[in-house]
Design goal:
single chain; mainly alpha; 4-stranded mixed sheet; binds zinc ion
């Protein structure tokens, strides 16, 4: 990838990320205002007002991102899809609605608030474990047609000693995303987008799949879930106890910190560290069963297809090491295997 392309990719992602972060901050502020000003008697009315206030924010934010993507990545997706995707900002808003409701229903009793908080955390974890999106992806995907790829991937899975329940292609061609991912905690599925299938050679596709099979072999999703559970429960209960029982700041602040901040600290500060480790682990395991050089080339190709900068600064892509880091250790691995 040449330097000017890398530069314009960085500019593009910087703009895109800024819109996303700004929207997130606005939505968060709105949620905080709602949380601290809403009265229990007006609860549903306040939820309604907040929902109405959110609509123009999400419409504008989606339009800005849509416009950037159409101009830079030449996506064929419609504006409507971006509006639909912006619903994910509800992940910021809805927890405030739930804890506000829980606070009202605890009638000032701290033990009730603490019970509700743990019930909400458990429900959220069960939701992540079940992950209904897997069902949607399964329904909206097809088996990979090429027997070469499936046989190649199955051979690697066999050597790794892991059973893959299905290799599926999802149609994300309108958003022009070349991606692959592993889903399922008990039954492992590998999904690849058709934009990836159309642009990589069969050999490269198998290398990318080897990375996903390695995630399944190492049980990364299950371990991630356990990690998230342990962190949110520990941090949540500790913060709640500190704020309510020691600092006496009251239930509203206690629940805010116990729920929202435990989730925030876990998902934005702790989880990325774990996920970057798992990405590296999956790369290294996959490279042993394919070839480090081939995997490195395939990753570079993906970066190019997705217009992702190769040397991504961390705050853009917290869950993966940058492609240049990944290519770096793979090349090093290649060098070692060639000259033992
Ligand atoms: Zn991965």
């Amino acid at each position: 990838m040449d330097e000017s392309e890398e530069k314009s990719n960085i500019t593009f992602w910087r703009k895109r990320t800024r819109i996303g972060i700004t929207t997130g901050i606005i939505v968060l502020l709105l949620s905080l205002i709602f949380y601290f000003t809403s009265k229990s008697s007006n609860y549903f009315q306040e939820v309604l007002i907040e929902t109405v206030a959110l609509i123009p924010i999400l419409l504008i934010s989606s339009y800005l991102i849509f416009n950037l993507d159409v101009r830079y990545r030449k996506v064929k997706a419609r504006y409507g899809m971006y509006v639909r995707n912006s619903i994910s900002y509800l992940y910021i808003v809805v927890p405030f609605w739930i804890i506000s409701g829980a606070d009202i229903l605890s009638f000032g009793r701290s033990y009730l608030a603490l019970i509700y908080m743990n019930v909400i955390l458990s429900t959220a974890l069960v939701g992540i474990a079940i992950n209904i999106r897997v069902k949607v992806w399964k329904r909206n995907s097809k088996d990979i047609g090429s027997t070469n790829i499936v046989n190649g991937a199955n051979e690697i899975a066999g050597k790794m000693g892991v059973k893959i329940s299905g290799y599926r292609v999802v149609d994300w061609s309108k958003s022009r995303i070349a991606n692959a991912f592993q889903a399922g905690i008990t039954h492992y599925y590998i999904f690849v987008t058709n934009f990836l299938m159309e642009n990589l050679s069969e050999e490269e596709e198998v290398a990318i799949m080897a990375h996903e099979i390695a995630h399944a072999k190492m049980k990364h999703l299950k371990k991630t879930l356990v990690f998230v559970g342990l962190c949110t429960f520990t941090i949540g209960n500790a913060l709640f106890s500190l704020i309510v029982y020691i600092l006496n700041y009251g239930l509203r602040i206690g629940m805010l910190f116990g729920l929202v901040f435990s989730i925030f600290i876990t998902s934005y500060l702790l989880l990325p560290i774990l996920r970057r480790r798992y990405e590296k682990e999956a790369d290294i395991v996959a490279a042993r069963y394919t070839s480090p050089g081939l995997l490195a080339d395939s990753l570079l190709k993906l970066s190019k297809l997705n217009h992702t900068p190769v040397s991504v600064p961390r705050y853009w892509n917290l869950s993966h090491p940058s492609t240049s880091d990944r290519v770096g250790y793979l090349i090093e691995m290649q060098r070692k295997t060639n000259h033992p």
